[in-house]
Design goal:
alpha/beta, 4-stranded parallel sheet, globular
């Protein structure tokens, strides 16, 4: 499309690198539909997705209905989740004017995970990882810090959940795969550091809750946690107490 109309392209999950390179060359306006986009009412998704779907996919539906992208690239492979397949079917029906393209990210070239291991405010670190999905360049060198805590899992819908972690927290799980641009990477996703207290997190109703809880039972000092749309006071209190009892400041 010409300059008169810059294509609005929604992405769900981590599209293959080749797709992101093409979108950058086309100067498309890319919107991450997994993330809350302004004050969009999540109830917009209720007629189309049951409440037992995770808050992320419900956010995808609400964002798509409100923003009406020209094109949506949605990962329906193992790099996202089985539920994304059905979400794609629904999007195709309710947004007939939007071109919906299903992808399966099977990239295996490691981009690296310097952000996951950097000393940085965890909210800012996770934000940099999620926004990095749209990047196509190699990461700059960032020296790793010595970890004192771990966060394993997916980027939460509500980043306030991350506010109690120290800057020396390392990120593991699918969020690390996300930074590495290899979302379908079971070996990397299952990795954790047994020497540091770690919170194992997944969105409620996400299939990854099974892996999160399983790995938490194997870790010598872990907290398994899931929450739905927002991080309530109970979830935050559990994280705060766990870190304090672990001697993490």
């Amino acid at each position: 499309m010409g300059d008169a109309h810059k294509a609005v392209v929604g992405i769900v999950g981590v599209p293959p690198l080749a797709v992101m390179i093409d979108l950058k060359q086309q100067n498309s306006h890319v919107v991450d539909l997994d993330e809350p986009q302004g004050k969009i009412d999540l109830e917009t998704a209720s007629p189309f997705l049951p409440r037992v779907y995770c808050g992320i996919l419900r956010t995808v539906i609400a964002n798509s209905l409100t923003l009406q992208p020209d094109i949506i690239y949605i990962d329906t492979g193992a790099g996202k989740c089985d539920c994304a397949v059905h979400t794609a079917t629904i999007l195709k029906d309710i947004l007939p004017q939007t071109e919906l393209i299903q992808t399966r990210n099977q990239d295996c070239v490691n981009f690296g995970t310097p952000l996951c291991k950097a000393e940085m405010n965890l909210v800012e670190k996770m934000s940099a990882i999620t926004s990095g999905v749209q990047g196509v360049e190699k990461y700059p060198d960032i020296p790793p810090c010595k970890p004192t805590a771990g966060f394993w899992g997916v980027p939460p819908r509500d980043f306030s959940l991350l506010g109690f972690f120290p800057d020396t927290t390392h990120i593991y799980g699918w969020a690390r795969c996300m930074e590495n641009k290899t979302p379908d990477n079971p070996t990397m996703e299952s990795y954790y550091n047994p020497d540091i207290p770690t919170v194992f997190f997944a969105q409620s109703f996400c299939a990854k809750t099974a892996l999160a809880r399983h790995l938490a039972t194997k870790h010598p000092y872990a907290l398994y946690l899931d929450c739905d749309i927002t991080a309530g006071n109970s979830a935050k209190a559990k994280i705060q107490a766990f870190l304090e009892l672990s001697g993490v400041s």
